[in-house]
């Protein structure tokens, strides 16, 4: 075995198995550490990275490890200078993933979707610390998995000596789903079971009537948010006595009481208690803790009287540590970041169910209760994501609507040390920072009636002594990460790694957050004087200081930097159909009023609360990219670019470089614009500035800046000679761009020297080669390129001097359901585009993949021969048009053609012999057959020649 196996259960306990050969490999690595340190010192770097965690799988991990090993071998004469630790799921192990073989060690992580493993920030950081790595390489793809997603659910039982992971059984979840399907007939049982959750569309009759009479869809959303909610009830954890469940906001734990009698506030209202009766197999469920109607999160339920009684006593004795998350108004004092204790006394008020803080001696003679709440600020920002219309005075003609702009808000962690009713809400309101959406204590405009669509209070964690250990259960919050920020990329990984002293091989957290949002990225591009597509934010600019603080270029005064961000950001958004029409007319969009209203309504309801902007559609465009690099000293450069216009449903199929479709002077300006944007934001590492280019007008517009290395980076490597993953590594070690040998060589400087290069003032020598690439995916071209999974028996590909490939599967491997469909990448190089195209087609024709999966290799071969591709007259919609018109029929697999031909030939041979025998008998002739003749009718050989290859079969009758 080459690797070390490190298994991490869901409790993150681990063990090591190190072979003797591995120990020797590690010893060899230790002997070669000094050359790396010497290299970093000579290149004027800041830190030495000897051990790297690859927090990705598939093609990303394969290419990263191979590229960095190649660099260390060329530079130091050894592949073992750097140790690579990979993360691997059981699915990856079963599929014999190639990256596991390439790594020095691997850590087994939970299977399933990437939020459980390769996009789980907490898990990555924990493994990085435990493995004592110097840096984390995230690759590509996992950043996407973090967009707007919550962290994976974790269960942990802590003991004095060692950890123990408890796995969620299917029993409670299955009973919950089946019980719900019986209790609520409108829910489709198959869909419920398939999704492993229970969804209830809470559509009340009077809300439907309101919808019929409502004149404004936007108004309806604001007045009756329940219409658009799907309540999700999840079973989180269970043992023989307890069950942990997630209660959504807006669901009651029990039926309300009125005059001592239970009643349902709404028709057919469902409570958590109703569901739990089904879960507990007929026995009466006993809730150990309760949550308010508007509070979401974790609840414990006793499945038996004994277990419920034991757990309830723990709550009464205050032996349960309860942790909540709350979104509060304003920015509390700095002291709250280290944690404070609020100790206001609480008393009842005259209003039903209301509570208030009080002095020790209440003047009205009411009983007061001592109460303590621990509070800590986790994050500061702005809320809501966009201005909204707050409605006052009811829903009739007398109501008033006021536009509310985003104001400072904070995410806080709250732990009540006592158990008083409404304690958290009362204490936070008394401290001047009420919970947003709290009708009782926040007041207008921060309650539900003022425009907030829910109360932002969530029961996050429960920790209690249970069965001679400490049980800790967590229910992730679905709004804590995305409610304050406008980032589609997840900047938490570089931020958390920085906190624990581990280098992130990629851009800083703040830069990633800014570039991950379409509105913010376009404003930054305009600030860098990069042409943008006409949109609702035309002309808006901002400036990024060295400290990463954003300011507008307009003369605003006495406004904090955070609010200035919102001012610029909000000016780019459209909030109503009328505003969209006004922006469209101003920019000159050809828009149909009726279609715009429908589109705006669809977008408004698809992601509630998300900012909306208007952008002109660009047709007949090419997708061109500029490969950029930046270091921590403010240097930036462009390494030519790529043409990625061959796309299917916005997924790249072919890539090539350099982009010969663009005029040289225009392409030079595209590079300079990309460098200006990179320098403006203080970008660090490798990234890609993407443009839409019009061959008709020879103009380009900014699309986005991808803050990571992309899968097609070998195209750039082949035409520039720069090893991209190795360059990323050297930038992460604090080596300036002008001191990296590959870059100096590409720009025509002595690679052994270290001297300053002004990349804005000098140009690199002309590119004298062309590279074409093709992605190999597990997709079925006969069924609209539907992803497939299964075993791969073999992949036969012969690399040559002008063509090479990468594959993420090993011998007798496979593609599992959670893996990326791309498992291979073929590259071909030539002196010009036509030579590279021919080499790529020849390489694909000689690629042989056998197994259960389907792949479009034959289709790609035909695609390379089309007139449009050969003449380079395609655009981004070209391939989708071909597929829709079926201009190219998907090629049948070679073995399928041969097999069907053999079957037909065998059938024809049997039919011919049978007809000969019948004809002889009709003539009165009886042919006596010997044993060899009868055997020939039962079993006989069939030979087929196809594509200059001979195939032999044995047919049996």
Automatic annotation (TrEMBL):
PROSITE patterns: ATP_GRASP, BC, CPSASE_2, PSI_RLU. The keyword ATP-binding applies. PANTHER family: ACETYL-COA CARBOXYLASE (PTHR45728:SF3), ACETYL-COA CARBOXYLASE, ISOFORM A (PTHR45728). The gene is accA. SUPFAM superfamilies: Glutathione synthetase ATP-binding domain-like, PreATP-grasp domain, Pseudouridine synthase, Rudiment single hybrid motif. The keyword tRNA processing does not apply. It comes from the Eukaryota. SMART domains: Biotin_carb_C. This is Acetyl-CoA carboxylase. Residues 522-733 form the ATP-grasp domain. Keywords: ATP-binding, Biotin, Ligase, Nucleotide-binding. Residues 48-884 form the Biotin carboxylation domain. GO terms for molecular function: acetyl-CoA carboxylase activity; ATP binding; metal ion binding; pseudouridine synthase activity; RNA binding. Pfam families: Biotin_carb_C, Biotin_carb_N, CPSase_L_D2, PseudoU_synth_2. One of its GO terms (biological process) is fatty acid biosynthetic process. InterPro entries: ACCA, ATP-grasp, ATP_grasp_subdomain_1, BC-like_N, Biotin_carboxylation_dom, Biotin_COase_C, CPAse_ATP-bd, PreATP-grasp_dom_sf.
């Amino acid at each position: 075995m080459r690797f070390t196996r490190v298994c991490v259960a869901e409790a993150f306990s681990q063990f090591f198995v190190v072979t003797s050969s591995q120990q020797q490999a590690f010893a060899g690595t230790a002997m070669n550490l000094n050359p790396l340190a010497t290299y970093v010192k000579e290149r004027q770097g800041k830190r030495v990275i000897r051990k790297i965690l690859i927090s990705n799988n598939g093609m990303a991990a394969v290419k990263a490890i191979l590229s960095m090993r190649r660099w260390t071998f060329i530079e130091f004469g050894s592949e073992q200078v750097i140790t690579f630790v990979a993360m691997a799921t059981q699915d990856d192990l079963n599929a014999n993933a190639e990256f596991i073989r390439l790594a020095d060690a691997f850590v087994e992580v939970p299977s399933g979707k990437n939020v459980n493993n390769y996009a789980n920030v907490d898990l990555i950081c924990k493994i990085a610390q435990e493995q004592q790595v110097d840096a984390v390489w995230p690759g590509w793809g996992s950043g996407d998995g973090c967009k707007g997603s919550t962290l994976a659910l974790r269960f942990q039982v802590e003991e004095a000596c060692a950890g123990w992971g408890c796995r969620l059984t299917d029993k409670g979840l299955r009973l919950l789903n089946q019980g719900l399907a019986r209790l609520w007939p409108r829910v489709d049982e198959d869909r419920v079971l398939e999704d492993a959750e229970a969804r209830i569309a809470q559509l009340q009759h009077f809300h439907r009537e309101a919808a019929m009479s409502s004149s404004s869809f936007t108004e309806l959303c604001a007045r009756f948010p329940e219409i658009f909610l799907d309540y999700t009830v999840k079973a989180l954890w269970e043992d023989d006595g307890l069950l942990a469940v997630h209660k959504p906001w807006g669901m009651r734990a029990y039926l309300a009481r009125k005059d001592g009698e239970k009643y349902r506030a709404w028709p057919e209202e469902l409570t958590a208690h109703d569901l739990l009766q089904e879960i507990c197999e007929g026995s009466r469920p006993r809730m150990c803790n309760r949550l308010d109607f508007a509070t979401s999160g974790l609840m414990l339920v006793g499945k038996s009287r004994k277990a419920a009684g034991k757990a309830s006593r723990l709550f009464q004795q205050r032996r349960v540590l309860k942790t909540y998350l709350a979104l509060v108004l304003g920015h509390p004092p700095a002291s709250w970041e280290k944690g404070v204790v609020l100790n206001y006394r609480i008393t009842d008020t005259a209003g039903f169910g209301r509570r208030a803080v009080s002095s020790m001696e209440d003047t009205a003679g009411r009983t007061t209760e001592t109460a303590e709440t621990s509070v800590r600020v986790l994050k500061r920002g702005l809320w809501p994501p966009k201005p909204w219309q707050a409605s006052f005075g009811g829903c009739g003609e007398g109501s008033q609507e006021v536009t509310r702009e985003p104001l400072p808000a904070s995410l806080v962690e709250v732990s009540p040390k006592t158990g008083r009713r409404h304690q958290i809400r009362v204490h936070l309101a008394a401290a001047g920072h009420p919970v947003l959406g709290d009708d009782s204590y926040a007041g207008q405009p921060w309650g539900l009636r003022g425009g907030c669509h829910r109360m932002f209070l969530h029961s996050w964690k429960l920790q209690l002594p249970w069965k001679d250990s400490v049980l800790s259960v967590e229910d992730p919050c679905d709004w804590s990460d995305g409610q304050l920020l406008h980032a589609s990329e997840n900047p938490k990984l570089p931020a958390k790694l920085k906190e624990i002293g581990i280098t992130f091989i990629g851009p800083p957290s703040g830069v990633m957050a800014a570039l991950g949002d379409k509105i913010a990225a376009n404003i930054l591009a305009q600030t860098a004087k990069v042409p943008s597509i006409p949109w609702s934010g035309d002309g808006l600019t901002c400036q990024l200081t060295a400290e990463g603080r954003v300011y507008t270029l307009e003369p605003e005064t006495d406004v904090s930097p955070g609010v200035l961000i919102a001012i610029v950001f909000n000016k780019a958004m459209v909030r109503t159909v009328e505003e969209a029409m006004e922006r469209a007319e101003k920019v000159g969009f050809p828009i149909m009023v009726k279609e715009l209203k429908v589109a705006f309504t669809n977008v408004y309801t698809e992601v509630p609360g998300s900012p909306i902007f208007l952008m002109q559609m660009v047709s007949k465009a090419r997708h061109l990219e500029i490969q950029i690099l930046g270091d921590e000293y403010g240097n930036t450069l462009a390494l030519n670019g790529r043409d990625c216009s061959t796309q299917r449903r916005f997924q790249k199929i072919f890539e090539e470089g350099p982009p010969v479709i663009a005029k040289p002077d225009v392409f030079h300006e595209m590079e300079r614009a990309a460098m200006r944007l990179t320098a403006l934001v203080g970008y660090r590492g490798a990234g890609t500035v993407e443009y839409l280019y019009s061959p008709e007008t020879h103009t380009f517009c900014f699309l986005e800046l991808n803050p990571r290395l992309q899968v097609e980076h070998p195209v750039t490597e082949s035409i520039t000679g720069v090893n991209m993953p190795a360059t990323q590594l050297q930038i992460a070690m604090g080596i300036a761009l002008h001191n990296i040998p590959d870059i100096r060589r590409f720009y025509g400087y002595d690679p052994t020297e270290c001297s300053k290069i002004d990349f804005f003032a000098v140009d690199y020598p002309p590119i004298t080669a062309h590279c074409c690439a093709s992605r190999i995916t597990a997709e079925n071209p006969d069924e609209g390129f539907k992803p497939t999974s299964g075993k791969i028996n073999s992949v036969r590909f012969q690399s040559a001097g002008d063509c090479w490939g990468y594959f993420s599967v090993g011998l007798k491997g496979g593609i599992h359901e959670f893996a990326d469909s791309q498992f291979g990448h073929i590259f071909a190089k030539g002196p010009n585009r036509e030579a590279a195209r021919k080499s790529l087609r020849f390489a694909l024709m000689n690629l042989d993949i056998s197994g259960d999966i389907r792949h479009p290799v034959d289709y790609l071969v035909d695609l390379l021969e089309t007139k449009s591709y050969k003449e380079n007259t395609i655009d981004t919609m070209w391939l989708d048009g071909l597929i829709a018109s079926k201009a190219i029929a998907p090629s049948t697999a070679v073995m399928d053609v041969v097999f069907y031909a053999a079957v037909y030939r065998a059938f024809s041979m049997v039919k011919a012999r049978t007809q000969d025998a019948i004809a002889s008998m009709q003539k009165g002739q009886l042919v006596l057959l010997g044993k060899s003749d009868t055997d020939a009718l039962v079993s006989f050989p069939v030979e087929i020649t196809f594509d200059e290859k001979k195939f032999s079969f044995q047919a049996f009758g």
